[in-house]
Amino acid sequence: MNKKLIKISSFALVLTLILAACSEKPNENTEDSSEIVQKEDVADEKKEEKVEEEKNPSENNEKLAKLYNKVLDEIDSYKISGIEDGEFTYSYALVKTDQGDYPQLLVAEETDFGISYLKLFTANDDFTDVFHDEDPISIGVAPAGGFRGMLAQNADYDALIYTTFMSGTGEGQQEKITSSVEDDILKLDREIIWEGRIDTLGSDDSKEIEFFEIDDRDKLNDLAKIKDGEYIKSLDQAKGEKEGSKEDTDKSLEEKIKSERNAGNMIATGSVRVFSHSELVNYQQLNPKAVPDTGKYYAVLILDKQMDVTMQSGDGSGDDTRNVGIIGLPEDMMGYDGQKITISFTNTDGHWQTDVSLPMDAPRMHQVKVLE
How far is CA 301 from the centre of its chain? Predict the structure, then answer.
């Protein structure tokens, strides 16, 4: 009897334990399911974010391009030069003046007297509005006074290089221009990095800024397609492609130079400058009273380094060889002002002067062949 009772009690205890275990198990499953659902929700959110990012990887650049388009559409309202009278045309470029990856908009107001005035624009943090500088930068060639101004992008894409000089004296300076925003105004920070005579200025890695007509918005359309954070990367890629193209050009120039030298011609490389009479007198440090002012302008090639030139004398006495640093160019080459070129010529393509006229102690070329 007792044994039977013990068996029944044991069976009842086992049954109770089984039922208790079964009643707890669903609760554990419910908790696990809740955790799984939460994890799945988080995964779905991340997946949606990734899909959205993949869908529009250039959201900020798109906003920036739209903002700069708006500036160009309303450019007359900014009165860049502050000059009321005259006819103006506009062009624009994308430049970099800070450490960020987004470009600034540089707009040129081009006057009909040789000078262009530049205003810089940058976007605010959410790309809904622009800040701009208050003092425009001047570039170009002044019709009087001898001012010359040039602007370039530095090699590190974080500053502009501004070079100015007076053509009469040749004295000038070079500034490094960066930007920052203070009190909703774009401030230009200018640091003088060189001073001296312009013909002693060495070369650097800065590159010429490419401007586009205001109606040509292709550059802004291209900006809108660049992934956020990859603008500078796109510049480096373009630079690499351009350098590859330049290597081909350099090889071609070397071949041209070799061919011209094989033909017995002389080769000269330098920068073209257009001088008024007084400017050239000052540049060559001549006595103004010794050289009559004819009111003429002169195109002159300032050589990268002095060279021996053999040229026939203007009085017909035969060839003469002299070491020179400048060459007088034909008048029809004034359009090359400011450009670096390589030319070839023979001893019969020009002459040495026999009178008191400009440029002094320099060969006067009737014709030259421009190789580059």
Answer: 26
Work out the angle at residue 209's Cα, subtended by the Cα atoms of residues 297 and 106, and round it to the nearest 5 degrees. 110
Start-to-end CA span in the chain (Å): 122
Q: What residue type is assigned to position 20 of the chain? A: A
Helix 218-225, helix 59-73: angle, nearest 10: 160
How is residue 99 annotated by DSSP? S
* DSSP one-letter code for 313: B
- How crowded is residue 232: how many other Cβ atoms within 10 Å of its Cβ? 18
| Chain Cα centroid distance, residue 335 | 23
- In whole angstroms, give the CA distance from residue 284 to residue 337: 18
CA atoms of 111 and 133, how far apart (whole Å): 19
> At 170, phi and psi to the nearest 5?
80, 0
Give, for 173, the enclosing helix (H) or strand (E): strand 171-182
pLDDT of residue 14: 44
Residue showing tokens 């101004």 = 149
Distance, in Å, from the CA atom of 340 to the CA atom of 150, rounded to the nearest integer, reads 14
Chain segment 148-194, per-residue pLDDT in tens: 899 999 999 999 999 998 877 778 999 999 999 998 889 999 999 99
Single-letter amino acid, residue 88: F
pTM of the predicted structure, to 2 decimals: 0.63
Amino acid at 298: Y
* Res 53 pLDDT > 70: no
Question: pLDDT tens-digit profile of 235-271?
Answer: 988 877 766 666 666 769 999 999 999 999 999 999 9
> What is the per-residue pLDDT across 85-106, written as a single tens digit (0 to 9) for each?
777 899 999 999 999 999 999 9
Distance separating alpha carbons of residues 77 and 27, to the nearest angstrom:
71
Q: Detail the DSSP E strand segments found in 11-146.
A: 89-95, 104-110, 115-123, 130-132, 137-141
How many whole angstroms separate alpha carbon 174 and alpha carbon 159? Answer: 12
Short-list 95, 276, 251, 310, CA closest to 169: 276
